[in-house]
Amino acid sequence: MTKAFIVAPHMKKQWWLTDKKLAEKHLSNARALLGSQEPTEIYSALNLLDAALDLCPRWEKALELKARAFLYLRKFRDVANMLQEYIPSLRFREIVPSESPPVSKEMSRDQVRLLPNYEESSRPRASVILKCFSVSKLKKKLLAGLSRRCEREEWRYLVLGQACCHLGMMEDALVLLQSGKRVASAAFRRESTSRNDDSFCSENSASESEIVSHLLGNIKLLLRRKSAAVAALDAGLYLESVRHFSKILDGRRGTPQGFISECYMWRATAYQSAGRVTDSIADCNRALALDPVCIEALTTRATLFETARCFSESLQDLEHLRLLYESTLRQQKFPGPVWKPQKLNFRDIHGNLQFLNSKILTMKQRLSSPFTIDYYTLIGLRRGCTRADVERAHLLLCLRHRPDKASHFVDRCEFVDERDIDAVKDQARLSALMLYRLLQKAYTYIMTSIMEEEAEKQKQLRVSELKCEEPDRQGAREPEQCLQVRGELSIDVKVDFKKSDCCIESEASNMRAKSSGSDKNVVNDTSVFQAVSCRDLVAVGTMLSHGFPSESWMNAHQGHAIMPLPVTYEALSC
User: Closest Cα to residue 29, out of 55, 52, 13?
Assistant: First the structure.
């Protein structure tokens, strides 16, 4: 049966069949194939619908079935290309090329000629034919046309809204689905008066309304979180903005590829404003893996690499960006489909290309001169940080940007074409591996510099300790010298006492006479000692004050009090 339907469009048309009847036959066969909901049967139905549209190009029923067949096969791009004139953002987009194509003289003359020529005015006009018509028939035709227009807009809004939702154009999908739901409810109210109780509700309309309601709820949730994140970013609350965007990106539900790429770019901007260069580069890598021709992601990543003084990586992104600009000017359109939203205006590309060329020359000059990568900016630390800070920052960044986990975000994406998944994973792993190597180089460089600084500090500390130990060693030598002097003095004093004990007695008597208040002049023959330091002075004074009497003198003068000898101290000040 399927083979007959495939061959039917190419069969020779019979003489009794008109184009309308043959198109209706193709349409009925295609509707029967679509009811099976098998991919092979749906592709066969598409062939039949193409044949029917060749016969009747603007047939609404055939267009609706074709659009729904594309939607069932998840060919959302084909649906958008087919109904792109109904996309709201495409209507209000103004693309003004920098160089408009030249206009021929004949076309310009035809456009300027507003009044008819004399020859045309002299020609006899056709006789005006007046026909009588009925007002009731005109009213019926007008109402039928309005109802047909509402039905046409209803299915277009609903089918195109679902396709835009899966393509990531959430704002357009919200407008289209709400308009289609409103038109469908109005049409249902008009038709409900002529329906009986048995056919009041159909299964197809109920299932489609449930799908539309589910999509609308998901779209509103995503747009609400995005609006909160953008508002926090505009208010300067960068970490709050990152938190809201992370809720979208780390959600359990599958997010469309186009919308998640846009959210990654928004979060990269928030990371860049917060000074987290590595996280911003990682989000740009993910956005470029999902959309390789994203001009905004290339521009942001080139700026981030330039901030970290990674001039070679920045130069690669700038050259890639220049190729995109040149192809856009050559083809007079942005890369990708026409309905894809673009934040860049077409008229600004020529000026951006000139600025980009000058920047590439400056970057090449920087590469030719010696330079050092700013690893502190790359890892997110200040100069003078400790070893613990470096190890903690390196551990967090490595856990967050491991190459083996770089492609896990792909599982949370909803792709338009399943064949793109492998390419996206490979690109994500490659870019994550390059970033991981930069992090390892940054960790090695910073740890080496910190270890060198610690070694230099320890060397300086040892030198200062040695300088402090020299006075202590000199102070330790002085007591030894004092002990030697003390021993010599004690020996000399003992020898003097053994030689003459009478001298000591005379000195004692002189002290007693002086203490009793006698008027005689007593001359003290005490010796005068000069010392260099206070320690020598104290030692000598102590020995002389005690007198060091001998044993013979102590035996001869038992019972007599021993008086201390007067000592005169003369020494230098300390």
Answer: 52
